[in-house]
Write a structure and sequence with these properties.
alpha/beta; binds zinc ion; globular; 5-stranded antiparallel β-sheet; 5-stranded parallel β-sheet; about 425 residues
Length: about 425
């Protein structure tokens, strides 16, 4: 197994740079001027070290939509973005609602070698919201599923939601809810507000998200179970989550990079690259989300990476698919919106993009401190880099990035998964070189 000596990397904000020796999959030593024999020396002057990022919300599309993404291309994109673990959402074809399908996805992740893939199990059979899926069998499978979600759809039946919350308690699982009241969002095309009024597009009102979150935090408290709220997008949702946390309830939440940066004003372009669910909201919502991520009300950044082939996006707004790719730009967007605004330091980024998402997903080998003896899941990130986003150079199979042509700061220099470089000098490792 190849060993590495990383020289002069910034581990903690403001502290003196340190050397890190990686061998046998773990961090062997940390110190200034380390004397250690290594196969590869890396000059990390000016680079920040973070624990490998963990995404709670990734759509890998396999099985069923390999034209949009595969587990291999999705995990390559994840590695390029600094991720060492991703949670693969269940809305595949077939749906990941049985032990067989989640084990298939888990195995494909193991074979890829670029990033650990932790499958998310569907809450209900076929994501139809009628009948609980085999939650226990998915948990007992080789995939060891602990996170369940019908993402893409809301578990809108309160009785089904209650039963799911009760069921997952037995094995410390969590239900991750896509909060969208279906009747209030029929025909919705974008955020309901001034812009939707002017454009004459069907509105997706904030209350459709907030009413489900309010109901679910009450249900989770009632049964004493864990609830996770997917892609929070409104200022009002933040207030409900803040209230639930103040009550001491076990509620966590995530925000996407795009909801931290983009607003519904972009929809005036009618470019479907900006069509996403939940929709881009207002500038006031964006500011509330940033503040909530900074103060910890929102626990994690999750990409909601949603690859689509060109034919599903290069069409009229009304018929275009919803979603955007995000794995390869997430850390850059967080740098711009949270670090360069002074809202978070790098330790805070490590907390929101690695430690807390790993804890929510109960991934024991990820989200660990950068310390001797820990698994070497690490990212070396260059925050001084400046460049223009070019999705044509992405590893993901799809190109639906809302940041095309935008200048975003920072770039992943290297990613290590258990001591193996999946990305080095900004380039993906050859598959054959992965242990
Ligand atoms: Zn969703």
């Amino acid at each position: 197994m190849v060993s590495y000596l990383i020289r002069n990397a910034q581990i903690l904000d403001g502290a003196a740079p340190q050397d890190i020796h990686i061998a046998d999959g773990v961090i062997k030593a940390i110190g200034a001027g380390l004397e250690a024999a290594a196969d590869i020396d890396i000059d990390a002057h000016g680079l920040v070290v973070l624990p490998g990022l963990v995404d709670l919300h990734t759509h890998l599309r396999e099985p069923g939509r390999e034209d949009a993404e595969t587990v291999l291309t999705g995990t390559q994109a994840a590695a390029r973005g600094g991720f060492t673990a991703v949670h693969a959402m269940a809305n595949t074809f077939p749906v990941a609602d049985t032990a067989g399908v989640v084990e298939q996805v888990w195995r494909l992740g193991q074979e890829s070698g670029y990033c650990d893939v932790q499958p998310v199990g569907a809450v209900t059979v076929g994501l139809e919201g009628k009948q609980l899926a085999e939650l226990g069998a998915m948990h007992d499978s080789a995939a060891g599923v602990r996170v369940f979600s019908d993402d893409g759809k809301c578990v809108d039946d309160a009785v089904i939601m209650r039963r799911a919350l009760e069921y997952v308690k037995a094995f410390d699982g969590v239900v991750a809810q896509h909060a969208q009241e279906p009747r209030l969002t029929e025909g919705a095309q974008m955020n309901e507000g001034q812009v939707s009024g002017e454009l004459g597009l069907g509105g997706w009102p904030a209350v459709a998200e907030e009413s489900i979150i309010a109901r679910d935090v009450l249900l989770a408290a009632h049964v004493g179970s864990r609830l996770h709220v997917c892609h929070v997008s409104t200022a009002g949702s933040v207030e409900i989550i803040r209230w639930a946390k103040a009550k001491g309830w076990d509620v966590t939440a995530e925000v996407t990079p795009h909801h931290l940066l983009l607003t519904d004003e972009l929809v005036r372009s009618y470019d479907p690259v900006y069509k996403v669910n939940p929709p881009l909201r207002t500038a006031a919502d964006v500011m509330a989300l940033r503040k909530a991520l900074a103060d910890g009300t929102i626990d994690a950044v999750a990409t909601d990476h949603a690859p689509h082939p060109a034919e599903d996006k290069d069409c009229e707004w009304a018929v275009a698919a919803m979603g955007m790719v995000g794995l390869e730009t997430a850390l850059s967007v967080v740098q711009q919106t949270m670090v360069e605004t002074g809202l978070l330091k790098w330790e805070g980024v490590a907390d929101r993009m690695s430690h807390r998402p790993a804890r929510i997903g109960r991934l024991s080998g990820h989200g660990r401190p950068v310390s001797v003896g820990e698994p070497a899941n690490l990212v070396l990130f260059d925050p001084a880099y400046r460049g223009t986003v070019n999705p044509d150079s992405f590893a993901t199979r799809s190109r639906n990035s809302p940041y095309r042509g935008l200048d975003l700061p920072g770039r992943v220099h290297a990613t290590f998964l258990r001591g193996v470089a999946t990305v080095l000098a900004g380039e993906l490792a050859e598959r054959g070189g992965l242990a």
